[in-house]
Design goal:
The chain has about 800 residues and is an alpha/beta fold. Helices cover about 50% and strands about 15% of the residues. The strands form 5 sheets. Strands 1, 2, 5, 6, 9, 10, 11, 12, 16 and 17 form a 10-stranded mixed β-sheet that branches. It has a 6-stranded parallel β-sheet with strand order 20-19-18-21-22-23, with helices on both faces. β21, α26 and β22 (about 665-670) form a beta-alpha-beta unit. α1 crosses α4. The model has no long low-confidence stretch (mean pLDDT about 95).
């Protein structure tokens, strides 16, 4: 498709439609036309895909296998047409056929393969790996229903199945010849043969991991990589005929249902043992199938000299979900290929690397020892041996052995700690923002850092400008090209920094403000169409969209809105610009505080939006079912980007980068990548408030904070806290005692009340700054220009150079 010819495209498209449906295009519905177009794109790129793989092999380039439980890839059709450089040509050809391209784009579902930042980061990384020609394959699971589809009913989050596969997924290609049998449960029998210990796995349950490959189309078709997704199927279809004939149909199909559950839902609720069992099985199936695929590729291309494996293979684990890649690779090398333990360990620890994504100890995965032993007996034995040898190694390390072992051991207090397993089995451990990486070294993993400081490094996250600027914001993309006089910035994103030369060009700044207005109108239409709420596009769009969690402090933002509501009730003539406050995000199904926070935000929205006086000044919207597709409408429309997590709790964040790249001004704490945004744009172009990370840590370590005292000393806060449990939200049918208790009885773990005063100060300053439209546009321009640092291309180059030690296209 690189050398696009309209007439040839139309001919091939008509043939594809005929081949699939035996119809004339004018007799097809939009779904059929979409499906045929995707199949044509897949077919047209298959040669380039094969050439990419062949080139990487013949040049003996090291290949990266990126393991992640999530890949939030979003809709692909429009994105791939852009990457291939044929979007305008295809849309023109479709128009000549009487087909509207936008109607086809709308037919595509957002794949339910992720939840939030972790999954979207993985998708951006795959995009950049293909764009800069890093040999790579993503390894994930093919979830039938994803996380869930969020619906808001009377202010409450309702979780519904996300039926993204209802019409099939034309991007994928099933690879049955490469399916893998995964074994659970059973017993391990030991044997001594000729002085060598070996193991037999008996009485296990089998699951077939079926691979489905999705192409990852790089910029200008320079490289096409693969995302491999694994689906759980029965090894052999069976039906309990006796149960069926007795009318117990559920029992008859029980085995199939239990296997289907493995890749049914992302992140099953693990508050109960059944959920933990399912999570462990999901994570092991991913690494077992993935490593089998890796070993088969390596043997096919390089033979069985596994000592060479570190020269050709890099396995990267995205957070702790794929941690069992370490013992699984050991199992295969020791049990199946008869390597000695030390040789296998030397290979494994050189091949595997690990990215940590959280600074919160309670978020680090750990599984009950008895459960892991029962489900994965051989893997458990290998982890035991890794742990034993690690503790022996610690005897050579200066310091108190017992203390070193307690801090770093894999088995601890009846749990198997997956972060410790990941670190011990990897040659590199990285954080995802400078502050986050410092916290890993200074506190969370300080003992590991003291033992081996050279393995720790920082790789600040990045985002795909192809997805979140070129595709999401075509009006801004066109303006950037106009301002720079070339579209070379699309390939070499660092060139966007030259926009700073236009910061005093009043005509350009006026055009930039007009682009923002267009994007606000586009989002307003989406909200009107989907939620039947009208909003003022002349108002300031103050937006916070991300996973709902206490540390992300959506509550602080909602308190700000309630405070403004209270001020307007006291003084309807308050001098404040009109605002539209927009929230979006999902709560984990079992996270009651986050669900109550959603209900509170929606209750504030009802209170504000139904007041005929207040709603002339402010309006509050909670956008349902936050996903990649509506995110591409939200980020370009924001004036203010709310990045207000408790300092020291957010690893990085990538929403902050997406807002920045689209010209929003950050209102935030010195947390995660906000620190690096601040270092790039300074006080003049973002607004910082609140406690710093060292201050929050001091309170955690030494005490000295009383939320009740803060409340009593600030009438504004006291009013809001009382409103949680008085009759202010009577119409919502709920009093918010859960939030009240978290803030007052439990002393406000995330310093919502402590930071409230400074947050309001910062917001009021931004409100004044926005009244100078040209100055605001200048700040917006500086943010866009400086966002060059946050391209995932830059991040992937750093991974390729410092961790994976593989090649990439130096000219991009």
């Amino acid at each position: 498709m690189a050398n696009f010819e309209k007439e040839l495209f139309i001919k091939e498209y008509v043939n594809q439609i005929d081949e699939q449906y035996g119809k004339d295009p004018k007799d097809c519905d939009a779904v059929e036309l979409y499906d045929a177009l995707v199949k044509l794109v897949v077919k047209s790129t298959s040669l380039a895909r094969s050439q990419t793989a062949h080139r990487h092999i013949t040049q003996k380039e090291k290949k990266v296998y990126y393991f992640s439980m999530e890949f939030l890839i979003g809709k692909l059709l429009e994105n791939y047409l852009i990457n291939a450089g044929v979007k305008d040509g295809v849309e023109e050809a479709l128009a000549d056929m009487g087909i509207c391209a936008n109607d086809l784009y709308k037919c595509e579902s957002d794949p339910g393969l992720g939840n939030g930042g972790l999954g979207r980061l993985a998708a951006c990384f795959l995009d950049s790996m293909a764009a800069i020609d890093v040999p790579g394959t993503g390894m994930g699971l093919r979830f039938r229903f994803g996380l869930f589809r969020q619906r808001i009913e009377s202010g409450y989050q309702i979780e519904e199945p996300d039926e993204w596969l209802a019409n099939g997924y034309p991007w994928e290609t099933q690879k049955p010849a490469e399916a893998v049998v995964v074994k659970f449960g059973g017993e391990i029998e030991k044997h001594f043969d000729n002085g060598k210990l070996s193991f037999t796995h008996n009485n296990y349950e089998e699951v077939l991991a079926m691979p489905y490959d999705v192409p990852i189309v790089g910029w200008k078709l320079g490289s096409i990589n693969t995302l491999r997704l694994w689906r759980a199927l029965p090894v052999k279809e069976t039906v309990d005929m006796d149960a069926f004939n007795h009318g117990d149909y559920a029992k008859a199909m029980r085995q199939r249902a239990e296997i289907d559950a493995l890749t049914c839902i992302l992140y099953p609720n693990d508050n109960q043992d059944s959920g933990k069992v399912l999570r462990i099985k999901q994570e092991y199936m991913l690494v077992c199938a993935g490593i089998d695929s890796i070993l088969n590729d390596f043997i096919e291309n390089y033979g069985t000299n596994f000592a060479e494996m570190p020269n050709y293979v890099s396995i990267h684990t995205n957070d702790t979900h794929p941690a069992m890649a370490v013992p699984e690779l050991m199992r295969r090398l020791v049990d199946d290929y008869n390597l000695e333990w030390d040789d296998a360990w030397a290979i494994t620890s050189k091949v595997v690397s690990f990215t940590n994504h959280t600074v919160m100890p309670e978020a680090l995965e750990k599984w009950p020892q008895d459960m892991l032993r029962r489900l994965l007996p051989r893997i458990y034995m290998i982890i035991e041996e890794i742990d034993r040898r690690w503790k022996e190694y610690l005897r050579q390390v200066p310091g108190n052995w017992a203390e070193l072992a307690r801090e770093t051991e894999i088995f601890h207090d009846g749990q198997v700690r997956m972060a410790q397993l990941s670190i011990i089995g990897s040659h590199s451990v990285n954080g995802v923002a400078a502050l986050h990486s410092d916290i890993l070294k200074d506190s969370l993993f300080n003992t590991f850092y003291r033992i081996n400081p050279n393995m720790f490094n920082n790789k600040t996250n990045g985002i795909s400008h192809r997805r979140f600027l070129i595709q999401a914001n075509p009006a801004l993309s066109n303006l950037i090209t106009e301002g720079l006089g070339s579209d070379s910035w699309k390939t070499h994103f660092s060139l966007i920094e030259n926009l700073t030369q236009l910061e005093n060009d009043s005509a350009f700044l006026e055009k930039l403000a007009d682009v923002k207005k267009q994007n606000k109108e586009r989002l307003a239409k989406y909200i009107a169409d989907t939620q039947h709420i009208s909003i003022d596009t002349e108002s300031v769009f103050d937006i916070q969209v991300k996973r709902i969690h206490a540390y992300k402090r959506q509550l602080l933002n909602a308190f700000k809105v309630l405070h403004i509501y209270n001020l307007l009730k006291e003084n309807p003539n308050l001098d404040i610009q009109p605002y539209t406050f927009i929230f979006a995000g999902k709560s984990a199904p079992g996270y009651e505080f986050a669900k109550e926070s959603i209900k509170f935000i929606c209750s504030v929205a009802d209170l504000v939006n139904s007041d005929p006086v207040v709603n002339k000044k402010i309006k509050v919207i909670f956008i349902e079912n936050f996903c990649v597709s509506n995110a591409q409408l939200i980020y370009p429309a924001a004036d203010i980007s709310e990045q207000i997590s408790t300092a020291g709790k957010e690893a990085s964040g990538t929403g902050n980068m997406k807002f920045m790249m689209n010209g929003a001004i950050t209102l935030g704490t010195m947390d995660g990548a906000n620190v690096e945004i601040y270092n790039l744009v300074g006080d003049d172009n973002m607004m910082i408030f609140g406690l710093r990370a060292d201050e929050t840590e001091s309170f955690y370590q030494h005490g000295g904070y009383s939320s009740e005292n803060v409340m009593k000393s600030d009438k504004r806060i006291e009013t809001i806290i009382n409103q949680l449990v008085d009759n202010t939200f009577e119409k919502s049918g709920k009093k918010f005692w859960g939030i009240y208790d978290a803030l007052i009885s439990q002393n406000d773990e995330y310093f919502v009340l402590k930071d409230f005063d400074d947050y309001i100060r910062a917001f009021n300053m931004l409100d004044k700054l926005h009244s100078d439209k040209q100055s605001w546009s200048r700040k917006s321009l500086i943010n866009i220009a400086k966002s060059s640092y946050f391209s995932s291309d830059r991040t992937i180059k750093e991974y390729a150079t410092d961790i994976w030690h593989t090649s990439y296209n130096q000219e991009i």
